[in-house]
Specification:
The chain is mainly alpha-helical. The protein has five helices and no strands. Helices cover 78% and strands 0% of the residues.
């Protein structure tokens, strides 16, 4: 005989949809976590969106605009964090290099053999 289809309660569906909307994680990750198919969860999301749009179109439009703005802001924050990390590393590298060249500070430990490369560069620049 064939397999019986699994039935999900309305509460489970609502909780799954709320989890996707609030967590910011992908549908596939949440579907895998809940043990359901991506397409099923995607269908529930689309159905929920259509229901919310029908119930209160004005509120839906406001929430959609806010959601889009939040996504854009999160993306920008992530970009700025990456830029900040790059600048921090550049500052640390610059600081290490200037300390090792001038001999005024310890700086961070170089990997084995790296201090020889710095000394060679210093000698080359003096010539």
């Amino acid at each position: 005989m064939g397999q019986q289809r699994r039935q999900f309660s309305p509460e489970f569906k609502a909780d799954a949809v709320a989890l996707v909307r609030s967590s910011g994680r992908s549908i596939s990750a949440i579907a895998r976590e809940l043990g359901i198919g991506e397409s099923k969860l995607g269908y529930w999301l689309k159905k929920d969106e259509a229901d919310r749009k029908t119930r209160d179109p004005e509120r839906f439009a406001t929430e959609s605009a806010e959601s889009a703005e939040n996504r854009a802001l999160r993306r920008r924050v992530a970009e700025l964090e990456v830029e900040r990390e790059i600048l921090k590393r550049a500052m640390a590298f610059s600081s290490e290099e200037s300390h090792s060249i001038s001999g005024t500070g310890q700086g961070r430990a170089y990997p084995p053999g790296a201090h020889h490369k710095v000394r060679e560069r210093v000698k080359e620049s003096r010539v």
